[in-house]
Amino acid sequence: EKKIGELKVQLFSMISHEFRTPLSVILLSCQLLREILIELIDEKELKNLYRIQSSAKLMNHLLTDILTLTRAEAGELDYKPQLINVENFCLNLLEDVQMFSRTTHTIKFIKHGQFFRANLDEKLLYSILSNLLLNAIKYSSPGGKIYLFLNAQQDATIFQVIDEGIGISPEEQVRLYEPYYRSENVEGIVGTGLGLPIVKKCVDRHQGEIFVESKVGVGTTFTVKIPIQQQS
Fold this sequence. Notes:
The chain has 6 helices and 7 strands, in the order ααβαββαββααββ. It is α+β, with helices and mostly antiparallel strands.
């Protein structure tokens, strides 16, 4: 089983590398084209270019998710905490999410507390919050409100992602972190069932906790609590 796990990591690492090379070319070409064309044509006419860019970024995000889950299952998920400004991290993350999801949703960031510098793994934290926000977007009506709360306490950093979407039944909440599992009420909404299992693995790697409160047809709140680790 250990050998199979190692082989899976090697396989998905190779696949991820091979896909990321052309994706990087696509993203760089889109950026260069945008810089050339933005002064020549109306920005509304650049929508197809933005569509290519956002699709490439979503593919890159999916590759990262698959590799993260594979490494976690094999016990090889890297954990490299460093002191970061969590408020700035959240603001930059929201820019990324709105860019590659091209969402019409309103995402509001609200902060509390005073301890905005914390020792966290940036890559794992990015996986946690980006997946929660993308799920909130995916399972909410167009134009719906989504909130990202940051509560920077002395002993823990707490994040909350709140949406007014389709919600999750109590019976299905117990299976949320199973890979590839999707709730019955997702209907025709496209998804992989990887997001929440990855979130759970990344939270566990921080020795944190994740909680969910949800009501069908009303919305969902995910709360992630990560204890403060002293910088080594």
